[in-house]
């Protein structure tokens, strides 16, 4: 597939496919942490089931940035928290979790 800019007569795929924003945004985030409550049923010494809640960290101290007009990759093994990080940055986390850290869009 060939994309050609008719105004200048040269190939400029980036401008033709994705027009440049009038207000580019730099996203930066620092020391993002996210933890969720996990309920466990434990049998105590008397043989009764006791419900306890343990807080599990899903994202631990994650920092980074994304520049306008550039592709940014988030890499990690299965279960590393990639989707959780994207949900935190896009403000799609559930109310049951606890999120801490700093993010900035300029």
From TrEMBL:
Keyword Secreted appears in the UniProt entry: no
GO molecular function: ATP binding; ATP hydrolysis activity
InterPro entries: ABC_transporter-like_ATP-bd, P-loop_NTPase
Keywords: Transport
Keyword Transport: yes
Membrane-spanning intervals of the chain: none
Protein name per the record: ABC transporter domain-containing protein
Organism, as annotated: Halteria grandinella
């Amino acid at each position: 597939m060939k994309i050609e800019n008719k105004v200048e007569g040269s190939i400029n795929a980036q401008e033709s496919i994705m027009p440049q924003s009038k207000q580019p945004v730099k996203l930066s985030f620092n020391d993002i942490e996210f933890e969720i409550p996990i309920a466990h049923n434990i049998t105590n010494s008397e043989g009764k089931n006791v419900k306890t809640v343990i807080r599990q960290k899903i994202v631990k101290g994650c920092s980074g940035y994304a520049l306008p007009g550039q592709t940014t990759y988030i890499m990690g093994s299965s279960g590393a928290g990639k989707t959780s990080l994207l949900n935190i940055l896009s403000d799609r986390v559930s109310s049951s979790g606890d999120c801490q850290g700093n993010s900035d869009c300029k």
